[in-house]
Design brief:
Layout (H helix, E strand, L loop, with lengths): L10 E4 L7 H9 L4 E6 L8 H11 L3 E5 L8 H13 L2 E8 L1 H13 L22 E6 L11 E5 L5 E5 L7 E4 L9 H20 L5 H23 L4 H21 L3 H12 L4 H16 L6 H8 L8 H11 L15 H8 L5 H6 L6 H13 L2
Parallel strand pairs: 1-8, 2-3, 2-4, 4-5, 5-8
Antiparallel strand pairs: 6-7
Helix pairs in contact: 1-2, 3-4, 5-6, 5-7, 5-9, 6-7, 8-9, 8-12, 9-11, 9-14, 12-14
Length: 382
């Protein structure tokens, strides 16, 4: 039996309307009258959610400054800009409201704002985070990345490479899971974020780092995603499906926080560093291209994941995953977006240092020749 461990879980407040707890929870972390930076997804402005959270924070006697000047796949430069706002306002906490981009950005800002080093200095664990950090509250409005539960933040460098920051300084102190915050998410984004959660769970359950303890979270996330993803895409007002998918993403976040991801994320990050592509779609395409290769000589972990998904055995996973991906409307072909990108270019991107941890976490050893095969597959899938 191998030694194992599980990272701490943040305190969680959940249920419809739970976003109203943001103010009291923040005040408990900072003390009365403190300043708070609200990092809010710019796409939420018309939903009223930003106003709801601002009102809760102000109602708890906190001074609120809002930062929304960032994009999907936030950049290291945007993290630096937000950290500057946090310093100027003397923020004691960061409340991150939005999808994975907002949560990753907010977490990064809270971890680096007490120092002056740029965000890129902390990439790939090249620099320790400051000893003192800002308090962190995460309120996800999509059900995909599970960033609310992880010690990881993904930022994009100036050269378009997606790099990770990692450490306890990034993990939120408080998580608010309010399924009502996901109701405005359109079907296409529900599909792409939801498939991301399923990929996280499948990879955490089957990669080289998987343990029986961690599979508790990964298998339940697989079960919930398989049950609720299609209903949530079909009917965005289905609060039960929204809540189930939100729990799936959170549990999958716990699973990857403890076990990491694998080859689908190696491919997904490489794709997104070459052309703009939604993260959920990119990792789903990576999984379609590699699942049949990965289940060869399965030691039982893919069988167990298949059963969690309601299937009979590992051999059923590749077809079932692809069928689900297509069934919720995710386009598999990259012919238009990646015209002119050669397989050799993509495989070289997959081999870059920032993708090494995901590659080496894969259950089956990946050689450089395998990367080229995967690149050819993902670029020619129709």
């Amino acid at each position: 039996m191998a030694r194992w461990e599980l990272a701490r879980l943040p305190h969680i407040t959940g249920g419809p309307g739970a976003r109203d707890a943001a103010g009291p929870l923040a005040a408990a972390l900072t003390g009365p009258g403190a300043a708070v930076l609200l990092v809010a997804d710019p796409g939420l402005a018309a939903t009223g959610l930003v106003d709801d959270v601002r009102a809760s924070l102000a109602g708890a006697g906190l001074a609120v400054e809002t930062f929304s000047d960032f994009t999907g796949d936030p950049t290291a430069a945007q993290a630096d800009a937000a950290a500057a706002v946090a310093r100027r306002s003397k923020a004691a906490a960061v409340v991150a409201l939005g999808g994975g981009s907002a949560l990753d950005l907010g977490k990064a800002v809270a971890a680096i704002a007490t120092d002056t080093a740029p965000a890129v200095a902390y990439q790939l664990c090249e620099r320790d985070f400051p000893a003192a950090t800002l308090a962190r509250i995460a309120i996800p409005t999509t059900s995909g990345t599970g960033s609310e539960a992880t010690r990881t933040a993904i930022l994009t460098r100036a050269d378009k490479a997606k790099v990770w920051l990692w450490g306890d300084a990034l993990k939120p102190h408080e998580i608010i899971l309010d399924p009502e915050t996901t109701l405005s998410l359109p079907p296409a984004l529900t599909a792409q974020t939801g498939i991301d959660a399923l990929v996280h769970a499948l990879e955490a359950a089957t990669n080289a780092n998987a343990t029986p303890a961690n599979r508790l979270y990964a298998h339940e996330a697989i079960r919930l995603a398989a049950r609720h993803l299609e209903p949530a895409v079909a009917d965005g007002a289905n609060l039960e499906a929204r809540a189930g998918l939100q729990r799936a993403a959170w549990l999958a976040g716990i699973a990857i926080d403890n076990g990491g991801t694998a080859v689908a994320h190696t491919i997904g990050h490489a794709l997104a560093s070459l052309r703009p592509l939604h993260h959920g779609r990119s990792v789903a395409l990576g999984m379609i291209a590699t699942l049949d290769w990965n289940i060869v000589d399965d030691d039982g972990r893919f069988d167990a994941a298949a059963r969690a998904m309601g299937l009979g055995a590992a051999r059923d996973l590749p077809a079932a995953f692809e069928r689900l991906t297509r069934g919720i409307g995710i386009r598999v072909s990259l012919a238009e977006e990646f015209a002119g990108i050669a397989p050799e270019t993509l495989s070289a991107q997959m081999a870059r240092p920032e993708n090494a941890a995901m590659r080496h976490s894969n259950r089956r050893r990946i050689e450089d020749a395998d990367l080229l095969v995967f690149a050819e597959r993902v670029l020619t899938q129709a």
